[in-house]
Amino acid sequence: MLEPRDARDAVYAEIDLLATWTKWVPFSEGARTIDRLPGVYSMRSGDSIVYVGMAGERAGSGSSKPSGMRGRLARYTSGKAAASGFGEAALDRALADVAFVRQQLNALEEGEPRRTTEWAKDAIGWHRAELRWTTCADADAARGLEDQIVRLLRPHGIWNR
What we know:
Layout: H1 4-16, E1 25-26, H2 27-33, E2 39-45, E3 48-55, H3 68-78, H4 85-95, H5 98-109, H6 116-126, E4 130-135, H7 139-153
Antiparallel strand pairs: 1-4, 2-3, 2-4
Helix pairs in contact: 2-3, 4-6
């Protein structure tokens, strides 16, 4: 029988074969350079994949140019996704970390109250997330790949609900 870490690593190897993935990059870098196409993205913290998401053909704000995955990740980098997807998952976990909350309370006590969007951005930074992605033909293909990966990762503690 495989040890839990070995079983997880075997699943990671299986996921690697499901698509042509980019290399892992820091979240902030990847969010700026990720494709404006439909696709699936993975986040990791440390050596664990913690979240998998997808984006279809999103219309860009004020533009007819689709923004795909870049548009979705822009919600996270702006802090506007504090109640959905990876933004919510990262914030929930940061709020359960006494050191993160203490950091936020110190800022408040120093007269620097911050908006929820700032807390959400800080939470993503707190986890030092890395990102990788793959493009897909359309939203349906991306949704199918995301579902497949989430099913594989569910027993290994991913943050997806």
